[in-house]
């Protein structure tokens, strides 16, 4: 496996993870978390764990993002801190 | 306080990164994880269960207990969401919006007002956010059956390709959520009621545990699918393969019910009235 792709994806994972906990807008945090999950899914697929990648794609990037967004929809978009 | 928390986080991260230096290198055949049980799984899966996908046989057969309690954890998550969020219906409704289709007027009916009957003329719309686009509605309506068909394929083909009950169940639940988002929550509840979703949660766990109990009644250990050969009239190896399929179907049904019921509770704040 060419290491450049892995390196780019790993950098994206770190950037998206830091972004998801620092961004003020909760909707944005939810979307960043979904993107983070998708990058993790690609990373699992590269490492050969296809079943884990499938689960991550369906649960992490799919359903949990919907749950985050519907929770934000029913509460508030901004954070206090 | 923030600086203190940052120092603790950096310290923990440093310790964790230092800890990884003790790990065996990635895909090392001499590492402890791949010297004890892994070779047994890789060598004996086909003769034990006749399932080519080793991950499926490990998940559902060799470590069936583990997966059973995972399913119970998911079931518990769904029930916990229900208890935390669900509120019972009030007698007097809150203010609602109705769309009069003939004249194109939107009516707001205040608390305690008389509601029009659900008919051809009046269509109820959400008060907070009205997602109505014919293109989105029709496209999602067309896509949803195919997503569900793909999910059934993922469950049934889990023996040969990546996937299985968990992923398939999540995809069916996601298709139902897509339907609820593109139409509205009431349309989705009309198709799959809350009672039915909660029933699916427990039915899935029941199928899983029931398969295990059936093996116990037929004279072997709990979740030892070889015992099913007596009622399926096959050899124990094929019976194990069928037992794995039964268990995967149970997991799929449970996960589907949990995903849908969590979405219903979360998006409508427990009222099951107006959703995302």
Describe the largest sheet of chain B.
3 strands, antiparallel
Distance between the termini of chain A: 42 Å
Helical proportion of chain B, percent range: 55-70%
Number of helices of chain A: 3
Strand content of chain B: 5-15%
Mean pLDDT of chain A: 89
Residue stretches of chain A low in confidence (pLDDT < 50, at least 5 long) are none
Describe this structure in words.
The complex is a heterodimer of chains A (81) and B (276). Chain A is 81% helix and 0% strand. Chain A is an all-alpha fold. Chain A has one domain. The longest helix of chain A has 25 residues. The radius of gyration of chain A is 14 Å and the shape is flat. The N and C termini of chain A lie far apart (42 Å). With 276 residues, chain B is mostly helical. The longest helix of chain B is centred in the C-terminal third of the chain and has 32 residues. Chain B starts with a helix and ends in a 9-residue tail after the last helix. At the A-B interface, helix 3 of A face helix 6 and helix 10 of B.
Write the layout of secondary structure elements.
The complex is a heterodimer of chains A (81) and B (276).
Chain A: H1 3-22, H2 26-46, H3 50-74
Chain B: H1 2-20, H2 38-49, H3 54-62, H4 64-85, E1 96-100, E2 105-109, E3 122-125, H5 134-156, H6 165-182, H7 185-191, H8 194-217, H9 229-232, H10 236-267
Antiparallel strand pairs in B: 1-2, 1-3
Helix pairs in contact in B: 2-3, 3-4, 3-10, 4-8, 4-10, 5-6, 6-7, 6-10, 8-10
């Amino acid at each position: 496996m060419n290491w450049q792709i892995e390196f780019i994806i790993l950098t994206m994972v770190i950037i998206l993870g830091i972004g998801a906990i620092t961004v003020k807008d909760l909707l944005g945090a939810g979307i960043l978390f979904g993107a983070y999950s998708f990058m993790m899914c690609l990373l699992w697929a590269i490492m050969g764990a296809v079943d884990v990648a499938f689960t991550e794609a369906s649960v992490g990037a799919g359903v949990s993002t919907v749950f985050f967004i519907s929770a934000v929809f029913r509460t508030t978009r901004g954070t206090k801190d | 306080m923030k600086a203190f928390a940052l120092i603790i986080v950096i310290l923990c991260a440093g310790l964790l990164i230092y800890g990884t230096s003790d790990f065996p290198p990635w895909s090392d055949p001499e590492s402890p994880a791949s010297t004890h049980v892994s070779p047994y799984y890789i060598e004996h899966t086909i003769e034990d269960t006749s399932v080519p996908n080793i991950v499926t046989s490990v998940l559902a057969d060799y470590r069936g207990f583990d997966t059973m309690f995972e399913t119970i954890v998911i079931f518990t998550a769904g029930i916990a969401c229900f208890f935390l969020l669900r509120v019972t219906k009030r007698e007097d409704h809150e203010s609602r919006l109705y769309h009069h289709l003939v004249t194109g007027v939107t009516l707001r009916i205040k608390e305690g007002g008389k509601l029009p009957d659900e008919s051809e003329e009046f269509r109820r719309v959400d008060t907070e956010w009205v997602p109505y686009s014919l293109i989105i509605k029709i496209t999602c309506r067309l896509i949803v059956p195919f997503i569900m068909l793909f999910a059934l394929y993922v469950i049934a083909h889990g023996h040969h390709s990546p996937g299985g009950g968990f992923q398939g169940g999540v995809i069916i639940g996601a298709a139902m959520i897509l339907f609820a988002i593109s139409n509205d929550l009431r349309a989705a509840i009309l198709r799959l009621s809350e009672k039915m979703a909660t029933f699916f949660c427990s039915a899935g766990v029941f199928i899983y545990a029931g398969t295990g109990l059936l093996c116990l009644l037929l004279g072997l250990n709990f979740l030892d699918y070889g015992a099913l050969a007596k009622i399926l009239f096959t050899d124990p190896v094929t019976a194990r393969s069928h037992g794995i399929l039964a268990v995967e179907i149970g997991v799929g049904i449970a996960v589907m019910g949990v995903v849908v019921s969590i979405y219903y509770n979360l998006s409508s704040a427990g009222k099951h009235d107006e959703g995302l």
